[in-house]
């Protein structure tokens, strides 16, 4: 199956054709009990690390994740929902690599493109019921030529699906995002809350921070911010900012004031 392709913008900030994500191969189907030559393999277990095409063992993830892609606007008043495309949902390490190895790297995307990797059932939008009370940690890389954006974005995705950006009981991380813009790359980590309980909400700490004190809620978010900063390999002097989605929406084109920093 042919890999998805993309071309980078060539003149100014005019976007080129967006990456084709209509067909993405994931883990092989029908190969569970066969050797590469088609013969039965009995109880032999083959992982993706032994044979990337004919493995029969999957390593499940704690959650299912969905990859989304935002196409660059055409300049004709495109609706956000028309630009945002759901690509594929996966729930194993092998499927993640199958997807990642067959889509365009971030460095080759057209300007105004985005990748979003979110837990299944959560749309990468402020208005989503699971996001509307939340916010995000984010950092802008302004020296685009000097930034290993593909490596950084990969490490952020792996930290998300590997559940290492938060503690197991936190239930805060909704997804991660990378934005490709003319003057910068931006990577963000979206959370369910802004450090306080969601009105009316959820069962226990895992949903909406119910029962958490404001101090505990802030501690959870700050811990995510510190881990996020580590994954981005930022020096101590650099600042990663957290802002609420509501504040960002109200600020319009201006940048929302940071609620927390690390």
Question: What does this 3D model show about the protein?
Answer:
- This protein is an alpha+beta fold and 262 residues long.
- It folds into two domains: 1-121, RNA Cap, Translation Initiation Factor Eif4e; 122-262, RNA Cap, Translation Initiation Factor Eif4e.
- It is built from five helices and eight strands.
- Strand 5 (173-180) and strand 6 form a beta hairpin.
- The radius of gyration is 20 Å and the shape is globular.
- Recognizes and binds the 7-methylguanosine-containing mRNA cap during an early step in the initiation of protein synthesis and facilitates ribosome binding by inducing the unwinding of the mRNAs secondary structures.
- Keywords: Initiation factor, Protein biosynthesis, RNA-binding, Translation regulation.
- One of its GO terms (biological process) is regulation of translation.
- Pfam families: IF4E.
Feature tags:
262 residues; protein biosynthesis; RNA Cap, Translation Initiation Factor Eif4e; 5 helices; Eukaryotic translation initiation factor 4E-1; 2 domains; alpha+beta; TIF_eIF_4E; translation initiation factor activity; 8-stranded antiparallel β-sheet
What is the structure about, briefly put?
eIF4F is a multi-subunit complex, the composition of which varies with external and internal environmental conditions. It is composed of at least eIF4A, eIF4E and eIF4G. eIF4E is also known to interact with other partners. With 262 residues, this protein is of the alpha+beta class. It contains five helices and eight strands; from the N terminus they run E-H-E-H-E-E-H-E-E-H-E-H-E.
């Amino acid at each position: 199956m042919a890999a998805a392709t993309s071309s980078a913008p060539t003149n100014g900030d005019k976007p080129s054709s967006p990456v084709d994500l209509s067909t993405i191969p994931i883990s092989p189907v029908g190969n569970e009990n066969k050797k590469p030559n088609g013969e039965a393999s009995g109880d032999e277990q083959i992982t993706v690390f032994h044979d990337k095409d004919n493995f029969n063992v999957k390593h499940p993830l704690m959650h299912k994740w969905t990859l989304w892609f935002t196409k660059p606007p055409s300049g004709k008043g495109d609706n956000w929902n028309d630009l945002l495309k759901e690509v594929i949902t996966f729930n194993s390490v092998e499927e993640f690599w199958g997807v990642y190895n067959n889509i365009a790297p971030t460095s080759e995307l057209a300007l105004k493109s985005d990748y979003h990797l979110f837990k299944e059932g959560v749309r990468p939008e402020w208005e989503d019921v699971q996001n509307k009370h939340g916010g995000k940690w984010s950092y802008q890389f302004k020296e685009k030529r000097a930034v290993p954006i593909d490596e950084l974005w990969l490490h952020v995705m792996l930290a998300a699906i590997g559940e290492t950006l938060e503690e197991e009981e936190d239930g805060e991380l909704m997804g991660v995002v990378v934005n490709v813009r003319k003057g910068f790359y931006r990577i963000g980590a979206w959370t369910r809350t802004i450090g306080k309980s969601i009105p009316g909400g959820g069962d226990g700490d895992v949903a909406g921070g119910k029962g958490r004190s404001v101090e505990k809620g802030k501690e959870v978010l700050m811990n995510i911010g510190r881990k996020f900063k580590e994954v981005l390999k930022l020096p101590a002097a650099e600042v990663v900012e957290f802002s609420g989605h509501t504040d960002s929406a109200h600020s319009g084109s201006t940048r929302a004031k940071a609620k927390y920093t690390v």
